[in-house]
Amino acid sequence: MSPSPDTFLREAKHLVDEALDRYLPAEGTGAPQLADAMRYSVMAGGKRIRPALALAACIAVGGEDEAVLPYACALELIHTYSLIHDDLPAMDDDDLRRGRPTSHKAFGEAMAILAGDALHTLAFELVLARTADGNVARRLGATLAEAAGFAGMVGGQVEDIDAGGVVPDVERLQGIHERKTAALIRAAAVGGGIAGGAEDEQVVALSEFGMALGLAFQITDDVLDETGTAEALGKTPGKDREADKMTYVALEGIDAARARATRERDRALAALERLPSPELLVGLAKFVTDRDR
Length: 293
Ligand code: GRG
Fold this sequence. Notes:
It is built from 15 helices and two strands. Helix content is 72%, strand content 1%. Strand 1 and strand 2 (100-101) form a beta hairpin. A two-stranded antiparallel sheet has the order 1-2. The relative contact order is 0.14. Helix 1 (5-23) crosses helix 3 and helix 10 packs parallel to helix 15 (279-290). The chain has helices spanning 5-23, 32-42, 49-60, 69-86, 103-107, 109-130, 134-148, 153-162, 170-195, 200-227, 230-233, 239-242, 248-252, 254-272, 279-290, and strands at 96-97, 100-101. It has a single domain, classed as Farnesyl Diphosphate Synthase, CATH 1.10.600. The protein binds geranylgeranyl diphosphate.
């Protein structure tokens, strides 16, 4: 029997946190303040949902979880770098993240920028230097780069900034979130499949799953920004409305946004029917829309 989503997330977090601790520069080494700033944000907690999805996708196609561990950690490093940079005064200007003062509040702006940069490059070092099979490493590196860069997260972030204060429309909003949030979540599922030796059609199913789940994740994030507490979320709620952001809640209200998240989640679940052992992914998909943090 598969573990519950909470149990699997806890186990995945343990595995990934132990590996991250090994992969990150040791405290007090090299440029000590940089090593401290990198560790401060990565080890502050976080749900580790992207690495958990990569591990579960690898298992869903019959792979062994250690084949995907460096890639799972790389996803978390890219995600953490994006949070550090997103919190900077030049972007969202946030004081609280993962229940702690943001990186620039704790280390200053220059160090926060540099810690993000170093996490970004460490991510690719892990994938390329620590993935056992060279061909798999090349495919994982390309998958991660595409999801994190111009065609994915960074491009989506720029579109999101450009959309501030604009009257919301659903097509534009979906385009933003496919790139800003869903691309990296899709890369978690696809990369997990690649590392696990998935057939081409299984990779396609994981891609559809990841994109739909990524949208469900973002819509739920928009709802939680309205309904969640700083204590549960570990960040300041209500920032989207304050910044007049284009969100699903601004577009259609909380109830319709929740219903939209459920529809995307169900679309994600339908794609899993084409995989041999999807149980862990099914549980994670339900966690994404039912969470309070
Ligand atoms: C700065 C290049 C650059 C990109 C920023 C991802 C992103 C783009 C900004 C983060 C801000 C944000 C609220 C994004 C929407 C969804 C999201 C990524 C939420 C945070 O992810 P969780 O809930 O966080 O997985 P934890 O802390 O649990 O890892």
